[in-house]
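Journal club prep — side note

Before the paper discussion, L.F. wants everyone to see what a predicted structure for a comparable chain looks like in token form. Sequence:
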Amino acid sequence: MTFDNIPHHIALIMDGNRRWANRERQPLEVGYIKGAEAMLKIVRKAATMGVKVVTAYAFSTENWNRPREEIGSVIKVFELYLRKMGRMMVKEGVRLETIGDLTAFPESIQKSIQNAKEKTKDGTKVDLILALNYGGRDDLRRAALKIASDLECGKITREGFTENLFSKYLDTARWPDPDLLIRTSGEFRVSNFLLWQISYSEVYITDVLWPDFTEDDLALAIGEFQKRVRRRGG
């Protein structure tokens, strides 16, 4: 791997926390704690390599279907690591952002997220976007509702409606689409993540479970990205 052609934006499907906990005969909460620790390390390493945006799939709209005990463990880890991440991110120049509908979370979580965003708003090295209560289809649904409203009141016209304009209604409007999508744990699916945005992303699949994903694994993924020719349909 060289430091040329580094992906500007990396998207992460951080899969395998539960399997890691089962394999290690640890409580489920420990799997999520180890996964959060791995994320901190990967964001820090990505920033030093020149990556400018990391979008991490932290909690999907479908994750509410999991057992209540597991959801409680995930939320507990969120609260713990939002505080820890806030200190780290300020030091490392990381700016925290989120996509998804946060209103479904407890008020304490929403406040912790807003506090972390406020503390890190001046970070300029890398944007860490946590996808929380996020689903690609829900992103498209909410965008469609806003578009319909703007069409009805005349803010936009059918004739002037383009793909670029559509993108501005998505949660990710502020950022370029991901160059590289990394999925851990060996699953070959995108799991309703950034469905519009990853249309031309390079995809890298690894069998490594997320809590075991290291800086070296990130370097391997970026090295593979650098070998690919991105024709974008041309």
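L.F.'s comment for the group: The radius of gyration is 18 Å. Keep this in mind when we get to the figures.
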